[in-house]
Each structure stands twice: as structure tokens, then as C-alpha cells.
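Supplementary Methods S3. Input chains for the assembly prediction are listed below.
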Amino acid sequence: MYNYYFGRGWKRYLPYLGMFPALALYLIFGVGPSFFTALFSFTNISGVPNTPWNWVGFDNYASFFSLSGAGRDNLGVLTRTIIFCIAVTLIQNGVALFMAVLVNSRPLGHLFFRSLFFMPTILGVTIIGLIWNLLFNPLEGPIQKLWNVFGQSSEFLGSPSSAFPLVIFVQIWQNMGFSLVIFLAGLQSISRDWLDAARVDGASPWQTFRHVTFPLLSSSVTTNVLLAIIGSLQTYQLIYVLTGGQFETSTLALQVFKIGFQGSISGGGLSRVSQVQQGYAASIAMIQFAFILVVALGSQWYLRRRETQI
Amino acid sequence: MSSTPEIYTQEEPVVKNLTRLESTLKAGPGARLRKRFSPLRLLTYAVIVVFAVVYLFPLLYLLNVSLKTNLDFINDPTSLTKTFQFSNFADAWVKGNFATYFVNTILYTGVSTLLQVTLALLVAYPIARGYVKWGRFFATFFVISLFLPNGLIPQFQLMVALNLYNTQIGYILLTSAVGIGPFLIIGYLKLIPKELDEAAAIDGCGYFQCIFSIIAPLVKPVLVTVAILHAIGVWNDIIGPTIYLTNKNYYPIALGLQTFKGQFSTDWTLLAAGTMIAALPLILLYAFFQRYLIEGAVAGAVK
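Predicted C-alpha cells for the full assembly:
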């Protein structure tokens, strides 16, 4: 069937031996826990070791969707998760595509600009969170100064009306460079012949982009849209460091962490639960998973179909 | 495109486009076009500069605040610094306990990255070569957890049950477990001829010896990419340490900085200096390895 050169008998199994440590680690700490999340979601297990727990059937799911009591913020959480996903995906990719086209026209220093826009990707959320907390500082921050010039003033990350849009902004600021780099790679793989042909035919820059460049970029678009959707539905680290989920900024992903490990529910100061509820958090992780599955598969299907049509 | 026929009915555009075409031909294939000044070009620069400001200003502002004296910051926080108060950095370093955090971060990142790259190579090689059954299944299996439900809760219970909670070794094992490493390496390995293995084996080279002394040097670029992507992930991880490391002596820099922020939430010159301390190694690393990073990110995403 296949050639193996490194001996016979037991030596034939050396490749399996080599794979074993990685497989074991991955099963124990990676993929195993993911599967067990489903089981945990049917229990009322707490985060406190050695306390008894019971099977509770679908109780966790029921209380999540009851939208009252402990779950009364959940409608807001769900709405925000959807808004976060749509806004991040559309704006991030729109801006990234636009900037990629500009950078690809090779202005002076285009390599520097590419590096600059990509840099937040490596800085990590703690640093990014601190930088934007400094900039959005409502008392003495530079953005407040700018606002004051226009006779405005805002609490920025400390107010329910402005915090969530700002979180979306910082999320896009952090990840735009990543999408840009992928678009740039796509743009550079487009043969000059296509563009020259369009020029010779008298197409304007916009026509060239609309009818030649953009269709040829469709696989980059698919990649970027999927990454942005999955990313925006799974990441919560940035929201955690910017607002801690306060001021109506929490999404499903952050709720899993907050309820599972911090023992508080965002939004209502009255509904704070002093104990962590890991069974409940696991059920939210499952709801989040279902959400991602539907959205990702749906958009994958649509984008692939669009690719083949082009 | 639909306007193709129309062009030939108009005199002027044809001539215009022909001269453009001629200049293209003269410049040769692949040469840069459109280098002349135009309003569109000016607009391009304007937009790029505005964006560059949005990306550069936050960092410069951070640097500016970190160099101010406390009094200067209170009087006029947004003005350009009049002093170079490097003592902020020394202060932050001591008060924030950054020395311990740095040692921890380097330990976690170093060991975890070494482990991840080694294990990923050991998985990728036999799959790429067809030395194991179910190769395609394994290749997919190692990335599937990126799409499965968030496993934080069972993982936590497991760590507690295994007595790995609040231990450095536990945290390192945890971070080494998952990654797209094998996926990236497999693609690269397929470019290396299999005859090499045969020749090595005939010369008496063992299986593992062949991987580490013959294959590894040949696939070094992709190993560097995997290492850097993984290292940055571990270096910046905030959730893992928040959950699993409660002992302050085990904190990595990301969590240390977050705690530092809680402690000195109003002392912005100190906080800015602390943030600079945490950001500087990353920025330096980025300056040296950005090509690997950007290419690695593209390779990882597009596959």
C-alpha cells in the first residue's frame, strides 16, 4: 500500500509512537473537553470542587430561554451577539478590502503600512485594552478632548449607550490588519494580464474593480467572511478587558466565561449571583456552538455557491 | 466589459488607451503602472495617512503618557511631554512585579512552543508521508476543536481532578495541546521528496533521527512560522491564566498587567509605562519576524 523505509516488525509502529503524545494531549485537554461540554450542560455542577451535583435535564436551557429571573438579560445578550457578528464581519471586511486595494496600488511605504495595520494582531488584548482605556478615558483622555471641541461629552466605555459601539470599533481596529493581509495576498495573485486587458478596453478604475478584481477575489472574501464570523462569535477576551461585560456589552461567548468562572451575570446589578454555575455556563456554550454552526455553515454554503457562479 | 464594442466607435479613448498600452509594453511585463501624479493617487495617500494615524496615534500617545511626570499628566494629560520620566518605567517594573511575570511568560511561552512544534512535526510527518493509516482523518481531527463547543468548563473540572489546577506544568500542558501546527507543516512537507527518506534509511538512519536531523532543517521556515504563531498566542493568553493560575508568583505578563491595572487604576503614567514594558518585546519581535508572521497568518487562514 505504501512504502515504509525504517525497518520491519515493531519498527513499523514508530510513526504511531511519535504521534501518541500529541494525540494524548489533544484528546485530554483539547477535543475531549469540547465533547464533554454537552454532558455538563445537563447538570447543575458548580465551580467549587467536591460539591455534589445532579442531572437536571434541560433545566439550564429552559432557564436560559425563559428570559426572566437569572435569564432576563439573555435577550439583550443574544441581540448583541448578532449585532456584534454582523457589524464586525461587514465593517472589518469592507474596510480591509478598501485598504488592501489602496496598499496594493504600491504607494510609497506600502510595506510599512501593511506591517502597521497588522501589528495590533500580535499585541494581545491586555495591552490593547489598556491603550484604549487610556484613549477613551472620560476624564482626561484625548478623545474626550476632541469631543469637547464639538461641544460634546461622553462616558465612552462607561456608558451603556456608547460602550458597545466602541467595543465593536476596537475589535475591528485589532483585526482589520489580518483581513487586509489576506485580501492583499488575494490581490497579488491576480494576474496583471486581466487588469491590463480591462485598461485597454477602457474600463475605469471602479469598473475594473467591480467587474474584474472583486470577482477574482471571491475565495479571499469567503475566507475572510468565515474567519470574521467565527472569530466574532467565539472571542470575548477583548470585551472582557475593555468593559468586563458591563454597560451592556456582554455577548454569548463572554457569558460562558463570566457565569462559569466569575459568578456574576452582566447588566443587572440586582441579579448578581454570588456563585459560579458551570452547568449553566456549559449550556450557554452549547447554545453558542449551535449558533456558530448555523451561521457558519449557512454563510459557507452561500459563499461557495457564489464562488462557483462567478 | 460590456462597453468593449463602444470603445471602437469613439476616436479619443482609443488613442489615449493606445498610448497607455505602449507605455505598458515599453515598461515590460510586471512593471509598475500609473506612477504619475493624479487626483486618485493623492486621495489614496490621504486615506492611507488617516488610517496610519488611527493605528499609530494610540501607541505614540501611550509612549507620551509613559514619559510624563505625574504632575504634568494631571495638569495637562494630552500635551506633548516636557520630560523624559524614565523613572516611571523603573517604578512600574518594581511595583508591578514585572520581573517575575517576565520569567513566567518566557517559561510558559518557551516550553509550550517547543513542545507544540515538536509534537506537531511528529504528527505531520507520518501523515504527509502516508506512514500511518487514517492520515487524512488525523489531519482534520487536529483542527476540529477550533469549531467544536467551547470546552472551558470540562477542562477546568479535569484540571482540578488531575491536581493540575494552579500549577505551572498544568498550564503549560494545556496550552501545548491545540494548534493548527500539523496542518501547516503537512502542506510544506509534501514539497520534500520522499526519496530523501529512503536514502536516509538505507544509510542506516532511524525513524526519529531522520525526522529531527534531516527533515526538520529542511522545513525550518514553516516550523518558525508555527512557533511564532503559537508563541504569540501563549504570550498574550489572558483567559487561561485567569482561570488556572491563581498564585501571583505564577502570573504571566498578560495577567500581571491586567492585575496591575486594577491596582493602579488612576495612576496613568505608571500604567502607561507598565503597558509599554509589556508591549516592547512584542513590538521588537514583530519588527524582526513580521515577514514570517504575515505569511504564516495568510497560510494558516487560506488553507
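Confidence is low (pLDDT under 50) at residues 265-273 of chain A. Chain A has 14 helices and no strands.
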